[in-house]
Every structure is written in C-alpha cells, then in structure tokens.
Amino acid sequence: SVMSTTDLENCWNQIFNDHLIPLKDNNPDKPILFLEFGYVDAIGSPHMPSMREFETKFFEDSDLNGLDDGEETQANVYSAFFDVNENNSNLIEGAFLWGNQMSSNVDWANSFDKLRTFSIRNKIAEDTVRQYYAQYTPLPGIPELISPTDSLSESPTTLSLIWHSSVNSTSYRVQVASDSIFSNILIDKTHLDTTLAISDLQYNTPYFWQVKSFHQAVESDWSQIYSFTTVASTSVFEIPVNFKLDQNYPNPFNPKTVISMHYAVGSNTVINIYNTQGVLVDQLLKGFVEAGTHEVIWDASGFNSGIYFYRLQAGEFADTKKMILLK
Asked: FRET pair for 62, CA 20 to 30 Å: which of 10, 21, 178, 202?
C-alpha cells in the first residue's frame, strides 16, 4: 500500500533526529549530501525494473488498489523529505535524484543523454521535485530564435545568430551543426548575450542551430531547431551591382533586429534611427564601409514600443525604411 506524506514525514523525522542531526553536530563544517535515494520505481514495477526504466510511463496495479504505487510512493517520499529538511534549516544541502552514474563520452551521447532525462517521462515524483526546486532556482525559459529566420536561403557566410532573451536566464549555450540531429556539431559555445557572430561559413551549405538557456546549475530544454543555407557564390553578396538597403528582420521585433545593406563600392556611411517626430534617437554606424553585403544589429532594449525609421546614407546613395518595435 502507499504510505502517505504524513507517514513518511514521521519516518524522515526519525532519520533526521537519530542520524543526520548528530552527524551534522559532529561535523559542523562539512556539508551533508545525498548521492542517491528514491529509486522507488521498483515498487510499482517489480519485474525487471531496470529494463523498463526508460519507458515513457508504466502502470502495474498488482495490489488492485487503483494506484500506481511506485510513482505515488516516490512522489510522497520526496515531498516528505523536502518538508522535513526545510523544518531542519535545510540540513541536507543537496541531493542527486536521477542520473547519478558514470559513463564514457560515447555512451553518454548515444544513450544516457538521450534517454535518462527525467523531465520527459511525465512522472508525478519528478513534478514534485521540479516544483520544489523552482522555489530556490527559477527554471530558465526556452529561448525563441529570431535570426536567421528558419529555412533562410542565400544567407551570407558571415552573420549573427539572434534569439530572444528568456526568463530567469543568465547565459546561453549555442550549437551550430551540419545536420538536423546535431551529430556533427561545428560550433558549441556558452554565451552571455543573445547575439552570437559567426564567420567563415562554407558557401552553398546548409546549417542548423539551436539554443538553450541556463540559470545557475539549471538549464532549459533546447529551442526549436532553425536552419539556413549559405549563398552559392561570393559574387552575390560580396560585390553587389547596386546599392540596396534591405527591410530589417524580424519586423516587428523585440528587442533586436538585423539591418542588411549592399554596397557596389566602398563608401562613407551613416546609419541613423529616428522616431516618428523625426528626432534622431540612435546612431548605429558612422564610418567607411567596404564594398559587399553587411549587417548591423539594433538593440532597442532601452526604447519604448512604437514605429521607428532607419536611414542609410552611403556616399550619394540614401534610403529610409520603417520598422516596428513591439514589446
């Protein structure tokens, strides 16, 4: 039968009083950590539980009580432990709850990293832990990719990857691969900002990219996977026939957007941002720009939502376009 949280709290109180508190008293300068506890799946799945661990969800009601005893007991074990530990000033400073094993890099990549992830198994015990930990370490949100837009063709070989900042995030991990399952990763970087410049990409080549966010030791799931394909030859982007100012993308945007311009010859350049009253509010670029295709990024984090205009003056060429900041 399933032990209630109250029953289990009584058990935990006895363990704390008889063992853990005296252990801490005898070792005041040393933290107490649990390396593993609560593999109670075996209660609900007594027949070869190790062979069934990676099932999405299993149910064996062997005592015909209408409950999945393994899941419910495990959830109650964790809930009771968290309550008793809080009542004892968080005497236990940390616990490894799942995935406490060692493996080679190859085994990890091909097996455990894909399968032994508690957040995908939809178990009530995991929800109990996730909700408790979120009180202390807010879970970071999954980043939303911005640019290059998904399935973009004729992308330049030098560009910036841009994504929205996500809630409770302090850093990001960015991966770029040559295949959609990321078996051949070309770039793998941890980054503090939401923009990563990359260069020296191959011509006429597809690339795939994804981002995840971090908050302290907690990480989000990976974002959607976006793809882009680079331009077939240098002539299209490096030596344009005419000057051209592209529409910014994305548009509307929040808070960053990319502005691309094409130069037939090198020119002295100014790119200004104006509000709807024609007041200059920002200057993105002032200086000489070589012939070719170039990008600049406007970060409008400090500006209010609304319509803005960006104006390019490159030698005798000038053009102005409208963009929308939508927060």
From this structure: 10
Residue 192 DSSP label:
S
Interaxial angle between packed helices 124-134 and 69-87, expressed in degrees from 0 to 180 and rounded to the nearest 10: 20
- Quote the CA–CA distance of 245 and 320 in Å, as a whole number: 8
Report the predicted TM-score, pTM, of the whole model to 2 decimal places. 0.48
Amino acid identity of 142? I
Widest distance between CA atoms in the chain: 85
- What's the pLDDT tens digit per position in 16-49? 999 999 999 999 998 888 766 644 443 333 334 4
Q: What is the average per-residue pLDDT within 141-149?
A: 90
**CA 195 to chain CA centroid, nearest Å:** 13
- Please state, in angstroms and rounded to a whole number, the distance separating the CA atoms of residues 319 and 85: 65
Count Cα atoms within 13 angstroms, Cβ side, for 212. 11
How far apart, in whole angstroms, are the C-alpha atoms of residue 133 and residue 219? 13
